[in-house]
Design goal:
The protein is α/β, with parallel strands linked by helices and 416 residues long. Helix content is 39%, strand content 17%. The longest helix is centred in the N-terminal third of the chain and has 22 residues. The protein is globular, with a radius of gyration of 21 Å. It starts with a helix and ends with a strand.
Length: 416
């Protein structure tokens, strides 16, 4: 299966090389940059409009993430209708489907850049998919803003200044779980289910690093491919270890399967740790909320199902406007809410740019200074620097209780 994954990425790279060689720049249009901004790129942006594009798995094994662009588009529609857009510019947001397949990501990204002539790509979702196009976007000098993945390389890399992540890195998350497990179960045995890609491997490596030298021991690991039909066999193998803790480092479809498999095995009752990219109600409800009590996950956003945020102004705006501008979207789906928060983050980043140009956006996303976003947990804000591509590096640990996630005390910030 690993050979198949490598072959898929190889096809993406080959396709990208062909597209780059054959594509050319085409006829690009935009307003003229003036003053200190003279000579910079203004493709896709005018005094009254800005065109953005995003690539998501609207279909395929990761289609649960299709809620993300619903939240993004609802935010932009709200800002366009009620606040005159971003800096007086109405946002046109184009969404393309790659099915979570890197070759398709290449195809759709090229379409956005060369045919639709977007100002920036906001966002690509996934580690392999985002990796498939960051060279291309860098060569074209097109911002790849807030990629929807916590892969460590998107913050640590210095060769791709046009690309930046957004959410806390998987390293931050894995280290936070290690700190929590050491504190709660200092002699625990741990079994790990992980996706066989940079996402799963980053989390596993960080957790292993975090428990090194402690009484916590990883006793079993089982990987899976995103093309696998289920992870039932892997969970059965892990259950045979009778480990005290199960780390579920999976995207939503497989995370839900693993939760259900854990529930069915009544002879095993580990502390179930669920990665934050899969801790949505859409993942939990099919399993039965009564069956996921006590599960643990990380958080950096407020939980829309938690009554503690009922009177929070940012949460009230999000819920009411999502319902208005994205009828049918579930306000309690954390993927939709993450999309809303990402869109607000983009807005504040562009508003801070010294030049309304691609170069101005590139520089702005690398010079964020404690930028507040309404739906981030209190105490968390965006900060970046020339050599710091991690906008968010703080998480809280939460436990599922009743009908929502409940935060434990304090936040965890890890070194970059």
């Amino acid at each position: 299966m690993r050979t198949k994954a490598i072959h898929t990425l190889g096809l993406a790279a080959a396709l990208l090389a062909t597209l780059t060689a054959c594509g050319g720049r085409g006829e690009e249009t935009g307003t003229a940059a003036v003053g200190d901004c003279r000579g910079q790129q203004t493709v896709g942006i005018t005094d009254t409009a800005i065109k953005l594009g995003g690539v998501y798995p609207l279909s395929g094994p990761a289609s649960a993430y299709s809620e993300v662009p619903k939240g993004i588009k609802a935010y932009f529609d709200y800002v366009n209708a009620e606040q005159g857009g971003i800096g007086g510019r109405k946002v046109e947001y184009l969404v393309r489907d790659d099915g979570y397949q890197p070759p398709k990501t290449v195809e759709e990204t090229r379409r956005l850049v060369e045919q639709d002539q977007v100002f920036a790509v906001f966002q690509t979702l996934g580690t392999a998919t985002s990796s498939a196009v960051w060279d291309y976007l860098g060569q074209r000098k097109v911002p790849q803003v807030f990629v929807a993945t916590g892969a460590t390389k998107f913050g640590a890399d210095t060769e791709h200044p046009w690309t930046i992540g957004w959410q806390p890195s998987y390293r931050t998350e894995g280290l936070a779980y290690a700190q929590y497990v050491k504190a709660q179960r200092p002699t625990a045995t741990v079994a790990v289910l992980y996706q066989n890609d940079d996402f799963g491997k980053d989390l596993l490596a960080a957790f292993t690093e975090g428990v090194a030298g402690s009484g916590v021991t990883v006793v079993a690991q089982q990987s899976f491919e995103v093309t696998d039909p289920t992870v039932d066999a892997q969970v059965r193998n892990l259950a045979n270890t009778k480990a005290d803790v199960l780390l579920n480092f999976s995207t939503p479809k497989f995370a839900s399967q693993a939760l259900a498999a854990d529930v069915r095995n009544t002879d095993w009752n580990p502390l179930h740790v669920l990665t934050q990219v899969s801790n949505t109600m859409a993942t939990l409800r099919p399993v039965g909320l009564e069956n996921v009590q006590g599960a643990v996950s990380a958080a950096f956003l407020k939980d829309p199902a938690d009554p503690r945020w009922a009177q929070d102004a940012g949460m009230q705006t999000y819920k009411s406007k999502l319902t208005q501008y994205a009828p049918g979207a579930d306000p309690e789906n954390q993927h939709a809410m993450a999309g809303w928060a990402m869109a607000e983050s983009f807005r504040k980043t562009l508003e801070s740019a010294k030049c309304p140009t691609r170069e101005g956006l590139r520089d702005a996303m690398r010079s964020l200074d404690n930028v507040a976003v309404d739906l981030l947990l209190p105490g968390i804000s965006m900060t970046t620097g020339a050599s710091d591509g991690y906008p968010l590096e703080t998480v809280g640990i939460q436990t599922f209780a009743g009908t929502h996630w409940s935060l434990t005390d304090g936040l965890i910030t890890t070194s970059k």
